[in-house]
Amino acid sequence: MDSLILTSMAKPEYTKIDMPPVYPYPSTNAILQVNKNANTDQKKSEEKKEEEDEGGDEDGPKPMPPYSSCFIMSTTNPFRKCCHYILTLKYFEFSILSVIAMSSIALAAEDPVWPDSPRNNVLRYFDYVFTGVFTFEMLIKMVVLGLFLHQGSYFRDLWNILDFIVVSGALVAFAFTGSSKGKDISTIKSLRVLRVLRPLKTIKRLPKLKAVFDCVVNSLKNVLNILIVYMLFMFIFAVVAVQLFKGRFFYCTDESKEFERDCRGEYLVYDRDEVKAQKREWKKYDFHYDNVAWALLTLFTVSTGEGWPQVLKHSVDSTYENQGPSPGYRMEMSIFYVVYFVVFPFFFVNIFVALIIITFQEQGDKMMEDYSLEKNERACIDFAINARPLTRHMPKNKLSFQYRMWQFVVSPPFEYSIMALIALNTIVLMMKFDGASLTYDDVLKNLNIVFTTFFFMESVLKIIAFGPLNYFRDAWNIFDFVSVLGSITDILVTELGNNFINLSFLRLFRAARLIKLLRQGETIRILLWTFVQSFKALPYVCLLIAMLFFIYAIIGMQLFGNLALDEEGESAINEHNNFRTFIMALMLLFRSATGEAWHEIMLACLGGKDCDPASGNTGPECGSTFAYTYFVSFIFLCSFLMLNLFVAVIMDNFEYLTRDSSILGPHHLDEYVRIWAEYDPAACGRIHYKDMYSLLRVISPPLGLGKKCPHRVACKVWTKPLKHKLKRNLLAFKRLE
C-alpha cells in the first residue's frame, strides 16, 4: 500500500539533523531545527571548567578536594577517606532527606499552648536524635571539605552555612535548656525557632527545586532597581503623610468629646435593651502617621487593599493635632489616597509583579542556553519521544452487526446528537431554583431521568460497538461510564429509595457531563491540553510555596500559639482563626495570603496580649512585636512574589497564544496525533494515499493545509509525485512506492 510521510522543511539559517523514529508512525525520519547561533563549544568548555572547579559532576559523587583538611588531614588520611566514603554513599543523601521530612513532621506536631505536655516531651527526644544526625552530617562534611581556607571548603557554600546556623542554634538551645539558670530565658525560644529552617536543606538536594529557587533569587536581583524606586516613592508618600496627619489620629471612646481634657469620667452606652456605663478613654487608631515607620506600615497595608476605607475615613475626619475627629472635616485629603492608589497598587505593584514574571521566565530561558535547541524545539522533541500512537477499535468483519453499530456510534450525527443532549441537560440543570413548586421540580426530575436514560443507552451502544475491553481503554469512555453510573445511583437513591442514604454528592455527576463538551472544539481542546501541561510544570513551584507556608506556620505556632482565644469576637484570634495547631496555622496563613483582614490578625498577635490558661502564664505577656515583621514579610513574599510564580509558569506554557501561529509547537503535534488516529485506527503508522487529502484539510497549519485552503491548491499540493515546497506551511510530502 502506498503511504505518505510527513516531514518538516527547515529554514535556511538552521541545520538539518535526521532523527530515527521512536515508534512506527506516519514519518520514518524527522528534521529538527538546530540553532547555529548557539555557541555550544564555548559553553561546553565553560561547563567543563566549572565541573573541574567544583570537583566533580553533579550527577555522580564529588571527589575529595585536593587540599588538606584543618591542616592535619591529607587526602590519604584514613579517617578522612572513611568520612568521604560515608558522605558519597548511595543512600546517605536519601537518609538525610528522610530525617529532614521526619523532623518537619515533628515540628508540625508540637503543642504550642502547653510546653510541658506529654506529646512535647516525647517529641523533644526525637529532636535530640534529629539534631544528632544533622550534627554528624555537618562534622563529616567539615572533615571531608575542610573549613574555609581553600576552594570548595565547607564555609564557602551558603547552603553549608545555613546548615551550620540551624545545627548550632539547636545545640545552643539544648545547652541552655539543660541548665537550671537558662530554663526561663526567652532566647531559647528564638533559637529553637531556627529549627524551621531545616526544610530548606532539601533545596540543595533536589536539583529541579534548586533551579526554581535560583530563578526566584535571580528574579529578585533583576528587579532590585524597581524595588529601590518603589521604596523611594513609598518613603516620599510616608513623609508627606506624616506632615499631613501627624498627631491627628486620636479619638475619645465617647464620640461627643473632641479633646483629651474632656475625655474623662464615664458615659452611657445603649445596647439594645441594656444601658451600660463605660469609662471614657483617649486612644489612638491602630494605623496612624505619627512617624515615618508607622506611615510606611500604614501605607503598605493600604497598598494591599485591606482596611484602607477605614484609614481614609480617619484621614478625612482628622482635624488638628491632639484633637478628636470631626466627620468630613477635610474631604480634600481623599485626593492623597487617590494619587497613592494610582501610583502604587495600580502602577508600581503591577510593574513589580510583571517584572518578577518576566525575569523568572528569562532565568528559565538562560538555563536552556546550554542546549543547542530552543525551548519550543525541545518541547516538540520531548513530545515526539514520549508520544504514543492512538488506537481506535474497528471490527474486522464489515458484514457483522458489531461493525454496523460501530459505524453508527462514530458517525458525526450521533456525536452531534449526544452534544445536543448534553447542552439540553445543562439548560435543565440551570432551571432549578429555590422556592419552586412541586410540579416544577417533578418535571425537572423526570427530564433528568430521560437524559440519564439516553446517556446510559449511549454507553451500552458503545460497549456493543467497541467491545468491553476496547471501550474501557479510552479515558473519556471511562469518564462517561462513571458519570452515567453515578447519575443512575443518584436516581435510585433519591427517587426510588426515598433518600435512605445521604448521597447528595452524586448529583455532581450531572454537572460532570459538561466536561464532555471540552473535547469537541479544537481551540478548547488545545487550551485544555496546555492547562494540563502547566500543571505538570507546577510541582516544584508548589513545593517551594509549601515550604514557605510551612516555615511561617511553625514560626507562628512558636510565637503566637499560646494566645488566648477571644470568645466575644472582638479579636481576630478566635476559635476558627489561630496558631494552636499546624493545620489551623496553615489556614490562617492562607487567609492572610488572600488578603482577608491580615492587618487585624497582625494587631491581635502583638505583645501584651492575654495568654491561654494552659500555657502557665497568668499575665498579659503573650504575643510579640515581631508580628509586624512576620506578617509584612509574609504578605510581601507570598502575595507579591510566590503566588505570581503560578502566573509565570502558566504564561510560559501559554506562550504559543502570542507568537506566530505558523511556528510548530507541541500542541500542534498533539492535535496531529489525535487526527491521524481517525485515519489509522489500528496505529500501524501508514494510511492510504487517497486519505491524505482529507487529512491535510482537517489539520490546521503548520502541519496541515486547513479547511480554508482552496480545493484546487490542496489537490495540487498532495498529488505531486515527489517534493513540493509550501511557502507558509514549510511542509514536504514524499510518496513511497
Structural description of this entry:
This protein is mainly α. The protein has 27 helices and eight strands. A hairpin with a 2-residue loop joins strand 5 and strand 6 (274-279).
Low-confidence stretches: 1-59, 180-185, 721-737
Strand content: 5-15%
Q: Which term fits the overall shape?
A: globular
Stated plainly, the CATH topology of the largest domain is called Helix Hairpins
Strands of the biggest beta sheet: in what spatial order?
A: 1-8
The average pLDDT value, as a whole number, equals 78
Helix percent band: 55-70%
Total number of distinct structural domains: 6
The CATH C-level class name of the largest domain: Mainly Alpha
Q: In angstroms, what is the radius of gyration?
A: 34 Å
Question: Given the helix and strand composition, which structural class is it?
Answer: mainly alpha
- Kindly, what is the distance between the CA atoms of the first and last residues, rounded to a whole number of angstroms? 8 Å
Second CATH tier, the architecture of the largest domain? Orthogonal Bundle
Number of helices: 27
Question: How many distinct beta strands?
Answer: 8
Major sheet size, sense and barrel closure: 2 strands, antiparallel
